Amino acid sequence: MRRRSLLALASLGPLAGCGLVPGGGGRRTVTVWLMKDSASTDFLRRFTEAFEREHTAYRLDVRIQQWTGIGPKVRHALDADSGDGPDVIEVGNTQVPQYVERDQLLDLTLESALRWGGDDWLPGLAQPGQLMSHQYGIPWYAANRVVIYRKDLFAQAGITAPPRPRDEWLTVTERLNRGGTQGIYLAGQDWYTLAGFIWEEGGELADDGGGDGVGWRGALDTPAALRGMDFYRRLQALGHGPTGSDEEHPPQAGVFAHGRVAQIVAVPGLARTVVQQNPDLKGRLGFFPVPGRVAGRPGAVFTGGSDLVVPNNTNEHDGAVAVVAALTGARWDTELARTMNYVPNKRSLARAVAGQEGVAAMAAGAARGRATPATPQWGAVEADNPIKQYMTRVLTGSDPATEAHRASRRITRALNALG
Predict the structure, then answer these.
(1) What does the alpha-carbon distance between residue 60 and residue 356 come to, in Å, rounded to a whole number?
(2) Alpha-carbon distances of 20 from 14, 309, 327, rounded to whole Å
(3) What single DSSP character describes residue 419?
């Protein structure tokens, strides 16, 4: 997922202009900002019609926004005093902390606990929307990485079922990595995948010191995080992924489509791109959750996706809360997941996508999903990402402990820099 790097708004105008919002009469207008491609036009039409039938006091003005450039536009809307801006905003799950810190979002803790079943939300969506046990961002949908594999190459190697514990994953990948076949294509700087391995070992990318007043600190040099990096090193060596670049350079879909590669780690939707580039692979691709340390329990993974937030400056408090309740409720959240191949926002709703192999694998992993550290300064870490440089140095032979300590110091400086 690249949800954080996609933020920015360029309004395409209200869906009312596209015929999705019927005449409002004397109704009060609730303005909703949703991001391009988060939901289909047909889904939004059906949701709007149903919502307005059931909530006769309101009409919806749904405005589609572009991810690129959304940060400044959202901040401007939240800073405005007029209350004429959006009443509900879709934001990337890892972007919520920066708005919470500025005290610009409505506290929805009571609704979450008493009416919306927040205890069942996916942690990778819910936790970034919290501050001191108060809920501001309401989970909408999720996506996370799975293993996409070539069924034909597995069969040729005599492998009849996907591996379950990750020790078996290493063994299977080593068996696949021969005779001109790469066992796995894993780029050296795929730090989202590394994050999952670190979390699976009980480590963190960074921690806040447990409130000791020291502030956030990089944590790549802890024993658990080093174990996660060591597993990454061993897996990455069972293929020809470049050590000095990430999964987009070159795009791994093209490598998988045109080479003899048995596995990649990616969101399931990438399989469509692979088949478009090589139609001969249609029907040959399978999916399984990233294996964990224990058989039967998927590994921890980075969860990307979106939360819905309500600005403090809204003039339509009740209408905004009603929209959030409807969009994130079981009926429409399940419908969105089926329509867009997402993971629903609750673990108990995973059965809604059980018939779709790739999405079912993603949903299984999402139950153990995590997000990046819940601090507004995390964007500063990613801007000059020391994790990527650390990975390359370890994969090219440098001492892991030394490099982890160096990268952790850089993360600490970035997380505690003023401004």
Answers:
(1) 32
(2) 9, 22, 16
(3) -
E-only strand ranges, 260-367: 263-266, 285-288, 301-309
Radius of gyration for the chain, computed over Cα atoms and rounded to the nearest angstrom: 22
Sequence letter at residue 39: A
CB neighbourhood size of 283 (10 A): 9
- Summarize pLDDT for 353-365 with one digit per residue, the tens: 888 899 999 999 9
DSSP letter for each residue of 217-267: EE-TTSHHHHHHHHHHHHHHTTS---TTS-TBTTBHHHHHHHS-B-EEEE-
Q: How big is the CA angle at 248 (ends 244 and 253), to the nearest 5 degrees?
A: 120
Amino acid at 117: G
Between CA 195 and CA 225 the distance in angstroms is 9
How many whole angstroms separate alpha carbon 186 and alpha carbon 278?
Answer: 20
Structure tokens that stand for 147 in this block: 């293993």
Strand pairing category for 88-92 and 28-35: parallel
H/E stretch holding 364: helix 357-366
Burial class (CB in 10 A: 0-12, 13-18, 19+), 358: buried
Token digits for 17?
A: 């202009």
Alpha-carbon gap, residue 97 to 380, rounded angstroms? 13
CB-based burial label for 160 (10 Å; 0-12, 13-18, 19+): exposed
- The tokens describing 243, both together, are 């050590």
d(CA 217, CA 382) in angstroms, rounded, equals 15
pLDDT in tens, 2-47: 332 222 223 333 443 333 344 445 889 999 999 999 999 999 999 9
Whether the bond between 250 and the residue before it is cis, its omega within 30 degrees of 0, is: yes
Q: Band of the pLDDT at 233, cuts 50, 70, 90?
A: very high
**Above 50 in pLDDT, residue 352?**
yes
| CA–CA dist 125, 308 (Å, integer) | 10
Instruction: Give the separation between CA 313 and CA 290, rounded to whole angstroms.
Output: 42
Report whether 194 contacts 391 (CB < 8 A): yes
CA angle 305, 47, 124 (to 5 degrees): 15
* DSSP 8-state class, residue 21: S
